[in-house]
């Protein structure tokens, strides 16, 4: 590979001329084409060790590189950067790396798994629009790890335990119509739960009734256990349809209830080791040094009831014992930051050696259209968002008339609408509040899923008309647009790795947008089907690789792309 040859050349210079052994040479693609096809700052990195100026080292590296057949030009830039322009054929040969990056890597079967937890819905409640963030960000991260060959456990940690089930049981008993729990819809159950909280304002004894019902559930009451199981099954069935539309999937959906018999041994260990100490009214807490700035961590209430925190500690232990993961990634919004800081600190106080752990945080969702924030005073349901997205996409397709080609308008509208929602979330940095803007998301021209989908369909249309192609070898010159598109395609592999390793899907999304811009600029200037050989075959190869990269990248971001549009 060209980079390997360049690396060997630069290492040889550093070793033979400056006494630097085993130098690490990193090549990257410059942000601007004016700075060449590849660049390295190795001269700057090793100047001090060599006792020479960066420019002296860079000059020596350039002289060596200029002797290589694959180098058209090399020069020193700035204080010691080395910029290299490849010959046309050498540049084209690098595209094999991009093609390889489009194919899922061989699974690293001997490696310990990476656990990625995301979505985390609550039983008996519909998914809200805000669930889009953790659900889509987590799925995209899991997809990129799987694509890179890592063994991945995709985990949906469901909120299926707690006092809310006692409250719901009381509500169904008091204000339900006598049906079995499984006969209710999620919306009906939510209405009953909301009514419970409204009635508590007038009758505070309902709170005690709810707690008592949950205590009986924890104690194994047969009737309440049957009620709880029906609610869990009903909710999971409801969730599966929405997850399917979003191209979201899980390997496990173990919820909080799974850890009921796994908390007591940990509580005993913590008490014995002095990690869990008595707080107010007999509660168990973890106290942290004042320097940490963290308040006490409640792990058991004074009445003996466990909490979300207790179950999370048990879950951490279970995951380590059962899966021995190399990484645990838990995707939540920013509100959970303190909880996970306390959780990790507690596990360390217990003497546990944790794997690499990250609470992958997202901001909150805001709506450009303020009326989208709520519906009739309730949280906006995700199902409503997806339905509205498809309806808006249908209208957008109708507005474009015959300029959009499809055999199934409804199918294309679903692809566009749901893709627009997913891309609209994932193209924004997860570390900031994410703004939900319909017009921007469904635009054919801006940084949106329809623009990506349209560009892919445009490339596939060219390829469908192409027929047989010849070899694209023996290219002696490249136009500015060809070279620019090639260099953008060459950035795919590194971009994908950066997006995965930083857990920032927007890096991949924004690369795909930039690739669409480059391809459309190329398409609008350079004739493809009517070009002479070997340029015609080269341009068709670039068109095909662009389509492959767009499809691969979109799929990793949970988005489907059409072949016609």
Summarize the structure.
It contains 21 helices and 14 strands.
Question: Helix/strand-derived class?
Answer: alpha/beta
Task: Count all strands and give the number.
Answer: 14
Largest sheet: 4 strands, parallel
Instruction: List the uncertain runs.
Output: none
Number of domains: 3
Overall pLDDT: 92
| CATH topology label of the largest domain | Rossmann fold
| CATH A-level architecture of the largest domain | 3-Layer(aba) Sandwich
Name the beta content range.
Answer: 5-15%
CATH superfamily of the largest domain: HUPs
- Helix count equals 21
Net shape: flat
The CATH class of the largest domain turns out to be Alpha Beta
- How far the N terminus sits from the C terminus, by CA atoms, comes to 37 Å
What Rg do the Cα atoms give? 29 Å
Physical arrangement of strands within the biggest beta sheet: 5-4-9-10
What can you see in these coordinates?
With 565 residues, the protein is α/β, with parallel strands linked by helices. The protein has 3 domains: 2-86, Arginyl tRNA synthetase N-terminal domain (Gyrase A, domain 2); 114-259 and 324-362, Rossmann fold, CATH 3.40.50.620; 403-556, Isoleucyl-tRNA Synthetase, Domain 1 (Orthogonal Bundle), CATH 1.10.730.10. It has 21 helices and 14 strands. It has helices at residues 2-18, 42-50, 54-65, 88-93, 95-101, 131-147, 163-175, 186-200, 205-218, 222-245, 264-272, 308-323, 337-349, 382-400, 409-426, 438-441, 449-466, 480-490, 492-502, 505-525, 535-556, and strands at residues 38-40, 71-77, 81-86, 114-117, 152-155, 277-278, 284-286, 297-300, 327-333, 356-362, 365-367, 374-375, 378-379, 434-436. The strands form 5 sheets. Strands 5-4-9-10 form a 4-stranded parallel β-sheet, with helices on both faces. A hairpin with a 2-residue loop joins strand 12 and strand 13 (378-379). The model has no long low-confidence stretch (mean pLDDT 92).
